[in-house]
Amino acid sequence: GEDVEQSLFLSVREGDSSVINCTYTDSSSTYLYWYKQEPGAGLQLLTYIFSNMDMKQDQRLTVLLNKKDKHLSLRIADTQTGDSAIYFCAESIGNYQLIWGAGTKLIIKP
Amino acid sequence: DSGVTQTPKHLITATGQRVTLRCSPRSGDLSVYWYQQSLDQGLQFLIHYYNGEERAKGNILERFSAQQFPDLHSELNLSSLELGDSALYFCASSAGTAEGAFFGQGTRLTVV
User: Fold this and answer.
1) What pLDDT shows up at residue A1?
2) A chain contacts of residue B90, beta-carbon cutoff 8 Å
3) Torsion sign over Cα A92, A93, A94, A95
4) Which among B33, B14, B21 has a CA at the least distance from the CA of B100?
5) How wide is the angle at C-alpha A43 spanned by C-alphas A38 and A49, nearest 5°?
6) Contact A95 B56 (CB under 8 A)
7) Measured between beta carbons, which residues in chain B are less than 8 angstroms from residue A97?
8) Strands B107-111 and B101-103: what pairing?
9) DSSP character for A48?
10) Pair type for strands B107-111 and B10-13
11) Count of alpha carbons within 13 Å of A34, Cβ hemisphere only?
12) For chain B, how far is it from start to end, CA to CA, in angstroms?
């Protein structure tokens, strides 16, 4: 069945770039998403990419999609303490279904 | 503000009881999803409704049920509650477009 996998934790130094990776199995995905969840809050859509795109940039965020390898990544440039959160990758498949990764907890070291 | 409203924000109840969680989707969104998030765990998909009809079921227990009403708001009913049902319950709504799903702030359920 469909599956989305992410590492559970990522630790980076403040000011460095963070790269959060995600792999998925369903090649029929139409859109792929990155969501951010801060402590005690709901999930907030950060960005998305259409499956026929390779890259999307939005200020400090860069999304790369390798459709051949079914690999999605989110790069956060100049990581700040406010970027501490759990980041979820999700893919949209048919029938309005969303398949979610388990989330990557981004830890920022001073 | 995502436009998705969940009530109540917090709920404390005893084992064996029954509770109802409510979700009002964003204006115009026909899809409503329910998720459970336990401490330090990812999202567990429970159920998806589209325009009043059940579209997909995830790992939803038989003690749990949901419905979507003609005005598109949705309710998640949890019965015979157990300690392990303590979690954050999220509702999300979607228009089925590239925008993806928009989440409410969640209902934190504590079963004591």
Assistant:
1) 63
2) 42-43
3) negative
4) B33
5) 115
6) yes
7) 48, 55-56
8) unpaired
9) E
10) parallel
11) 29
12) 31
What are the tens digits of pLDDT across the range B34-79? Answer: 999 987 667 899 999 999 999 999 989 999 999 999 999 999 999 9
Of all residues in chain A, the one with the smallest CA distance to B98 is A31
Query: How many angstroms separate the CA atoms of A25 and A34, rounded?
Result: 16
Residue B107's DSSP bridge partners are B89
CB < 8 Å to A31, chain B: 98, 100
What tokens does A16 get? Answer: 């460095």
B5-29: pLDDT as tens digits: 999 999 999 999 999 999 999 999 9
Handedness of CA B107, A43, A6, A94 (dihedral sign): positive
Q: Which residue of B has its CA nearest to A39?
A: B40
**How far apart are the C-alpha atoms of B104 and B34, rounded to whole Å?**
10
**B104 closest CA partner among B20, B19, B21, B18:** B21
| CA triple A25-A29-A33, angle to 5 deg | 95
Are A90 and A4 in contact by the 8 Å Cβ rule? The answer is yes
